[in-house]
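During the first year of the project, the team set up a workflow for recording each protein of interest as an amino acid sequence followed immediately by a discrete structure-token representation. This format lets reviewers and collaborators read both layers of information side by side without switching files. As required by the reporting guidelines, we include two representative entries from the current panel. The first entry is reproduced here exactly as it appears in our internal archive.
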Amino acid sequence: MKAVLFDLDGTLIDTAADFIRIIQDMCRAEQRTVVDAALIRSQVSEGARAMVKLVYPELEVDDPVFLAHRQRFLDIYGADIAVDTDLFEGMYPLLEALETKGIPWGIVTNKPRWLSEALLSALNLSERCAVLVCPEDVKNTKPDPEPMYLAAKQIQINAQDCIYVGDHPRDIDAGRNAGMYSILAAYGYLPLEHKDDLTAWHSDCIVETVSQLHQVIFELLDVNQKTA
């Protein structure tokens, strides 16, 4: 393997605490039942629409009232994007180890670019990230392989020589569809409807911690180097 690509929320960066804070504050402001933190966490990877739907389950997603609430959520999140957000424990050493070996790492996400760039900037990762592919960059988002191929092209490495790490079935499908070695990050924001049988995701590997992810990645890199 010659490069490592990550999903963003729930894989590289632990953003759940800020989503939980904002959604629960919205519930209190509207005098609605406060949504359980664990439920919010499981929906982070589904995006802003899913977040707001937790607060206003009775509204249709194309309802102008719902869209106004969604925009309010995005405005609040974008204005203060990393209050309680940071990389997952153990991820800083992993990124540093990749950089020391000259292995490029990047991000393929379904998070909008303006939010992704703001988040990376807040965590001082913008200059370290070799590639960032967001929904605006492609016609077809994950689970389609198009964003994976684009990321590989931009770092000038064949897709089959890339590792992709994600915490959602669409991440694994996208990686597999592009011929990448796909790792399921079981420490992430696993969707409730898919978390009971992780083997059904058909990833190449499942890791429970970032420490285990670190080990697996460097075993793959060592194998690549030995066979090169």
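The second entry, processed by the same pipeline in the following quarter, appears below.
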Amino acid sequence: MFILVLGSILGLMHLYVWKRTVKDTTSPGRTRILLSAALVLLLVLLIAALVLPRTLGVTHTGWVAWPGYLWFGVAVYLFLLLLAVEPVRLVLWLARRRRRTDPPAAPAVDRRVFLARTTAAAAGVAAVGLVGVGATTALRRPDLLRVPVRLRRLDPAMDGFRIAVVSDIHLGPLRGRAHTERIVSMINATEPDLVAVVGDLVDGTVAELGSAAQPLQDLVSREGTFFVTGNHEYFVEDTAEWLTELERFGMNVLRNESTRIRRGSGGFVLAGVNDPAGESDSAGPDYDRALAGATPDQPTILLAHQPVQVQQVAQRGVDLQLSGHTHGGQMWPFHYAVELAQPALAGLSEVDGTQLYVTRGAGFWGPPVRIGAPPDISVLTLRSDSV
């Protein structure tokens, strides 16, 4: 159903792009036919990039995924740029009607074609340029962010405790083992006390991506690595198999449960909840169960993939929630749409007394493009009010 809806939207979007870049800029004939065919082929390539991994498998479809998803990015920005010109086009059309009641046909047509070609060429160059910059950002080494977080009730013995937070790695047809190895190397270099992987690790099966995820077993921290599911973990057929595989890698999967982290006389409760997408598999979030081990004398830190989940825990005494999911918006101007659905886009904020930290994630989904939202790995340093 999702693919059907998305395919319909993409079809309408390409129809508009065809109208403005092909029909309005060419006369009937061979050139228009060739350009129209090229645009249809690009649409087919994009749909193939979306569909083939589900039928042929993730590891065998990189050849179509890369050009398909790159065109996806170009098509999106081409559509938005052309759409942004529509008010100008309308104003010019109204101005022509007011100035002339019966303008000469040929010059008017020539001017319209010239403006259409100029607009299409400018939009095309800008779209390709934006995607080029965005792809460079998405594929480069993630930013390493160091963020101090002050927690009430944190024992001075825990002051300086460091949590490496990474999310949205999105192993799939575009990102594989080398991507994981780089992330593991960056995290280990920070010498964290604990590693939190907050969902959306994979977009494929264990058989396809188990080898790509295997470097996660090399993560090193004093207290271990903890994992909670994201929505994409439930888009694959073998969610339970993936969780077993991650445990085999030495990761601690928190399924609506908690554990206590101690250092000397101090400590905190670390809890984790499933993503709401798990409700389709009868494995949705159970906040009461996850927070059953919380105590009033020590802070509680919750791992939850989606920032919006903070609305369920803010009144349950959670001091800090660590999340991902938003990708920081990934591609401007879609930041604004994400902000409508989530309480925070990225960084540290507060919701009803609970601090919320949202990482922009280390990977991407869909187009390998990030504009205004570079990838990151975050290292949070806990600070005590008593120090």
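For the second entry, the following points were noted during internal review. The chain is about 45% helix and 15% strand. The radius of gyration is 25 Å. Both points are flagged for discussion at the upcoming steering committee meeting.
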